[in-house]
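Suppose a colleague, Dr. K., hands you the sequence of a protein chain of 208 amino acids and asks what its three-dimensional shape might be. Before reaching for any lab equipment, you can write down a predicted structure in token form. Begin with the sequence itself:
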Amino acid sequence: MSKQDNDIELLRTWKLPPEATLGSSVRTKGVLLEMRARLPISSKKSLVLDAGELVLSMSANSKTQFQTAAAIVSSAMNDIEKLPVIPREIEDILTIKPAERYRWLADGRLPSAGTRTVRLRGRAKQITFHVFDPKVVEDLLDNGLVDQWREEDVAAAAENRRRAAYKAKLQRSLKKGAGFDSPPEAEPMEASGKLVGWDEFRRNGFLR
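The predicted structure, expressed as tokens, is then:
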């Protein structure tokens, strides 16, 4: 094989459907990283993203390696729309904050599709996080439920503040009212130490 033949590039592309990317650049990059994770180490960097397409390119003398990688990507593309959505992707797709994701996940409004555990690059530590069904995420996006949830949260926060203020006011009222209900104080003693009214009590003869 001549040097010129070795310079010929093997090339194949796959267009990412909107159902897979959900209009998110973060999700699109996530799909690329997922595809690379399935490839052999020697082929990972041969797969890139270009204008919404996955592009696999290698030199002509890597035909076997190219065919293996192409087969893996083609197989994965069959179910690309079902690829679980990870936290940073859903935040970009729905334009939500991490705190909102945590809150809605905890109260059940944002259903989890399971968890995934990964090892941080260059570290021994692993992290586990929830992933989400892309179909559910798409429905949330199409139905505008995020805006509705935010309105519900604002109303709930206002109600919680109202209840807290009422509770505080009630406690103050109870404390203030307790002063009027307390038993009367004992009559004061005379400066000499005798009880007030004692002489009259003795003259009346109640002790005889």
